[in-house]
Amino acid sequence: MNELRLIAHEGKHGIIYWQAADRQQVNAALRALFDMLDEQGCYEDDEGLEAARAGEHSAIYRILKGRQDCEYEKWEVIYAIDPSSK
Fold first, then answer.
1. Distances (CA, A) of 39 to 28, 33, 35, 57
2. pLDDT score of 36
3. Helices in 40-82 by DSSP H: which ranges?
4. Which member of 3, 46, 59, 67 has the lowest number of beta carbons within 10 Å of its beta carbon?
């Protein structure tokens, strides 16, 4: 069976999932997550914040990874099984 890779964010409003099958989707998912958390005011003085806001993937990843287990910023990569594939 094939697995589908997802990025899941668990926040105060529930869980949001982004498909992350390839590098382009991973980058887009992390950017969407960063933008959402930035809009919620999670980031103020983080190192690399301006670069992340400008869309630099490495800065986005460093900020998200460094705060991955914070209460409202928790996210993880999970895998779902595609039952139609053999």
1. 16, 10, 6, 17
2. 94
3. 49-53, 57-66
4. 3
Report in angstroms the alpha-carbon separations of 31 from 1, 24, 40, 67: 29, 11, 14, 15
Q: Is 82 helix (H, G, I), strand (E, B) or coil?
A: strand
pLDDT tens-digit series, residues 3-43: 899 999 988 778 999 999 999 999 999 999 999 999 999 99
Residue 14 contacts by C-beta under 8 Å, 6 or more apart in sequence? Answer: none
Round to whole Å and give the CA distance between 86 and 69. Answer: 35
Six token digits for residue 23: 């590098």
pLDDT at 51: 97
Is residue 47 classed as helix, strand or coil in its secondary structure? Answer: coil
Amino acid sitting at position 22: D
Determine what percent of the chain falls in helix, strand and coil, rounding each to the nearest 5. 35, 30, 35
